[in-house]
Amino acid sequence: MPVWTPSPNFLPGKTRVGTTITDTHQFTGSIHVSGAMSGSTGISPLGDGANSVQVGDGTISATGASSIAIGNAASATSTDSIAIGEGAQSTADGTVAIGDNAQAKAGANNIAIGDSALADHASGYAVALGWSADAGGVSSIAIGSDANASAAEAIAIGSETTTSTAAASIAIGSYADATGADAISIGKFSYATAADAIAIGGPATASATDAIAIGDSAAASQTDTIAIGRSSVVNQPNAIGIGLAVSAQNANTIVMGYGATATTANSIALGSGSSNATANTMTIGSSDQSMDLNVTGSVTLSGTLVGFGSETIGGVNSAISVNTLVSFVDDSARTSGQTNFTLAAGRPGQMKIITMTATTGSGAGGNPQLANTNLTGNINSGILWNGVGDTVTLLFNGAKWVVCGKGGLITIG
Q: Which among 68, 122, 124, 72 has a CA at the least distance from the CA of 97?
C-alpha cells in the first residue's frame, strides 16, 4: 500500500470541504469529518439515526438514535441499540447483539453475545451468552454453547443443549435439564423434571414434585422423596434414602447406610446392609453384624419397646404380653376357678421371663397355668406355677416358645 503524502487540501488535523480522494492511503494523525464521507468503501461514521455510528460493508444500518452498527449487514434499528458482527441484529431499545448473526430483538434491554446467540423476549431483559445460546424468557439467562433458557426468569448455564424451560428453573451443566417450575438441575445429564424438584450430580434424576436427588445416578421419583448418595433409589411417596445404593421401596420409609433397604410402609432401616421388610418397625444393622448402642443421657420412648420392661397380670384367662421382657403373675384376686394364661407368638430370638409374685394358694380352683398353644410340641398341657417365686424363661425360635430354664416348684407337662 503506498504511503500517502497529504496535499495542502487534506492535512491531518485540518478540515477541508469538497475534497475528493480517489486512492487508498495510509497515514497517521487525526481526520476531522464534517458531513458524510460519500463514496467511501466500508466506512460511514455517521449512521442514519441521530448520533449513530455505522461501520462496515453491505446493507449496514444504524437507524436508531445513538445506535451503533459495526460489521457487514449489521443492523441497529432502535434507540441505544448496539449490533457488532456480520449480520448482527439489535432491533429494540437498549438491546446489544455482538457476534456473527447474533440477535437481540423483540424487547428492550435484551442482550445476545456470541455467534448466532438469540435474546428475544418481548418483555426484555433476557441475556444469551455463547454460540447459539437462546434466552427466550423474560429476565432469562442462557450461558454456554447451545444453552437454552426459554421461560420467565429461567437460568441455563453449560454447553450442549442445557435447558431450563419452566418458570424460575435453573439448569447448570452440560445436558442438564430443568423442566419443572422452580426446579434446579446441577451436573452433567442431571434432570429435574417436576415442580420444585432438585437434582444435583450426574446423572441425578428428580422426577416428581418436591423430590430431591443428590449424587451420581441418584433417583427420586415420587412426591416429597429424598435420595442422597450414589445409585440411591427412592420410588415411593415421602420416603428418604441416604447412602450408597440404598433403596426405599414403600411409602414413608427411611433407609440410611450402604445397601440398606426398606420394603414395607413406615419402616426404617439403619446401617450398612440393613434390611427391613416389616411395616412400622425399625432395624439397625444387618443380620450378620453385632452392634453396641451407647447412650449418654436419657432415652424417652413413646409407645412400647418390644422385649424390654415389665408388666403385672392377674385374673382368669389373661393374655401375657409379648411386648415386655418380664411378666409378673399376681393371682391373689382370684376367688374360684383356675387362671389360664395365653402367650402369643413372638419374634425370632425373643426372650420372655414369667414369674409368680402372689397367689391365693391351692384349694381356690387351682394354680395359674400357661396353655400350650404356642409352646413347643413336647409340652402337652402347659406350664403350671405352684408358688410365689416360680419362674420360667422362654425363647421364641421362630415358630414356638421353647423353655430355656425354670426355677422354684414350677411344673412343665
A: 68
Query: What separation in angstroms does the CA of 246 have from each of 33, 72, 222, 226, 255?
Result: 76, 59, 16, 11, 7
Quote the number of domains for the chain: 3
If asked whether residues 387 and 320 sit together in one domain, one would say yes
Residue pair 209/197 in contact (Cβ under 8 Å)? The answer is yes
28 by Cβ neighbours in 10 Å (0-12 / 13-18 / 19+) ranks as exposed
* Domain annotation covers residue 20: yes
Q: Are strands 411-412 and 383-384 parallel, antiparallel or unpaired?
A: antiparallel
Q: What is the end-to-end Cα distance of the chain in Å, rounded?
A: 124
Place of cell 442514519: 48
In a domain, residue 123? The reply is no
Examine the domain organization and report whether 279 and 364 are in the same domain: no
Cβ of 114: how many Cβ atoms within 10 Å?
A: 24
pTM (whole model) above 0.85: no
Domain assignment present for 65:
no
- Residue type, position 216, single letter: D
Q: How far apart are CA 34 and CA 146, in angstroms?
A: 45
Burial of 262 (0-12, 13-18, 19+ CB in 10 A): buried
Domain that holds residue 404: 310-412
Q: Which three cell numbers stand for residue 153?
A: 426468569
Could you give the strand order of the β-sheet that contains 383-384, starting from the edge strand earlier in sequence? 319-320, 340-343, 369-370, 383-384, 411-412
- Please write the tens of the pLDDT for every residue from 374-384: 888 778 778 88
Q: Do residues 238 and 225 touch, judged by C-beta distance below 8 A?
A: yes
pLDDT at 344 exceeding the cut of 50? yes
| Domain of residue 403, CATH code | 2.60.120
Q: Is residue 105 part of a domain?
A: no
